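The aim of this short unit is practical: by the end, you should be able to scan a pair of folded records and say something sensible about each. We start with the first protein, listed as its amino acid sequence and then its structure tokens.
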Amino acid sequence: MKERMKSLLLLLLVACSLVQSYYLIYRLPGSDSAAKATNTYIKTDNMGPQQRVENLAYPDKMLIHMGDGKHTVFYPNSTFYKLIYTRLKGRSFENFQRESVDNIDWNKVRSENPGIELTFGTGIPVSLLERVMQIQPDALFQAERINRIWIYNTPSDSKTHALFFSTQGDVMYEAAKVDLTVQDVQQHVDFGKSWIPYAMQDGGAYYVPEKPVDIVEATLEIGSYTVAQMQQSLFFDPGITRYIQEKDGSEIYTDSKRSLQVRQEQKWMSYTDPAAPPSGESSDSKDILAAVDFVNEHGGWNGEYRLDLSSTGAGQNQVMFQQYYGSFPVLDTLNFHYGKMKLDLQQGNVSAYERSLIYMKPGQSKQVRKLPAGNNLKAMLLAIGKDSPVEDLYPAYLPKLDAGKLKLTPVWAVKLANGQIRTIR
């Protein structure tokens, strides 16, 4: 009897052990039942790495003036561009003096004096530029936005001139104390002597290469972020979003406050949060930092980007990040939205966010193409300029989806005074 009781007790213990093992196995994280319980959760860590604003704020081009009417242009990520810009970021600029731009013949300065001219598109706030370069804080122009830095030598002066141009157009600031010698500037300028020569047009508005420019045409393997990933990234509770099918084929997901619109044929999304609460006083610099933080927290960066900023009204800014492939920007077109992230901010809060869902994957094919130059290019620019004056010329990529891959075709991008972008191949 005693042995029988022992056997029953042992059997009961084994049964309990099996039951406990079952619950342990199927309730531990990573088990099938746990996966079913949380199958709406999508990790977004791997959508793209985070980025610092200092890595996004850099010039769109570097003009090298060699004197005697000789010029060349270096573009982002090229060897000489990176070498010169890295050195300039390590030098200090102090004691700024406000001056008028009308007192100097700039065409003469460009043609006769060796120097380096950095352009920043629509401009960069001085308070942000101080995070990138060694600029001594100065109340005189702390609130300015700078779209051009010009560092040059003159034969009659033993010191280097460093000018910071305001986007206002009629004001510049000269650093009275510059940690650069005449020899430093000349050494940087000499890097341009073996590069493609460029001819200055319209008083330095843009530059035309005198020899054809070699640029790589690329066909890239791509992937696409899913709607579920973007929902998880942008909504507090993706489980309560409603789906709406629009007549144009676009998909809308909303939680009654925020909305996410996805255009699957273009792999493009736009997110709006009109109820974003105001955070008080704002500035260009704060809006840029808020925009970078937002992208870091809601999807990350799927490539190389450069900061661009435009004001849209009182208390409102549109912050854009231009995507690059190699040294050149990828154009955002009407037929295929790609190449730019756009964020609208109101008093430091993001109210709208647009980006492509496409990301590049390993695997690509490349071939070198030549962009036109010299008189041939000048003739095409003259024809285009009849509609509106040419403001800028730069190499770029025209994107196109081709058989499930992303094709980047090299073009000249021609920016007109009316805001249009035309292309030349």
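Turning to the second protein, read its sequence before its tokens, just as you did above.
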Amino acid sequence: MSQSPWLFISISFIFAATIGSFLNVVIHRFPVMMKREWQSECNYYLAEYHPDIVKEVGEKRLNKSIDDFPKKYNLVVPGSACPKCKADIKPWHNLPILGWLALGGKCANCKTSISARYPVFELVTGLLIATLAWHFGPTWQFLFASILTFVLVALTGIDLDEMLLPDQLTLPLLWLGLIINLKGIYASPADAIIGATAGYLSLWSVFWLFKIVTGKEGMGYGDFKLLAVFGAWLGWQFLPLIILLSSLVGAIVGISMMLAKNLGRDNPIPFGPYIAIAGWIALIWGQDIINWYLGTLI
């Protein structure tokens, strides 16, 4: 494989684009699954401790949002279907990128438009993993960086849709980063531990300082954990670069959105995608950027 790098890169792209198709499912269904779990827990609490509320509101109304989806609903079941006509999507229509193009971006049954975000996420996932294949080659670094990238794509999509970075995705990444760096895959064990701690506490401190001064919450706890993930994976040395890059990209995109959509300053904008982008850039080119910056100071 090392003698045919383009073959490895091509296979990586095709495989990753296929995984990207599944990540579209994760982005859509995972928040729904979480909301159903939250509502089930709330309903159980109300039924046990506040039966008078259940009696007044009615059990059917309490379960309304749960009943909007099939009883068995997870990342596998039920199969993919058109949200309008409910027609099952054929396996060949689920081919990454090509399936959407073959359908002309419309449902094969009712001709309802299918969002272009599906092939976009598949294409982006394929390109990201292909870049990793080019940069790392067939190594352990490539394998673990691919796992990190897949989860980052899912987290980005969920945060854009729901303003949510689920602990079920961020915390396993955090622990995985610490575990793999016991062997120094990307950083020394000490740098990884300090990085995870510093990554969390840095944004946590900013959050509380902003809240004390303004009385408002400027970001969510998921952002702290995501930065801690990159500290655990890359070490504390890359945190200033990631914070700088994410803030810069976030400011540019945020200002652009405010101008284009006439959004006010109080409109929430997810910060997780910018941390993910900055962290992924640092994973590939972080050391080169730091060396360049230090070189300009000398």
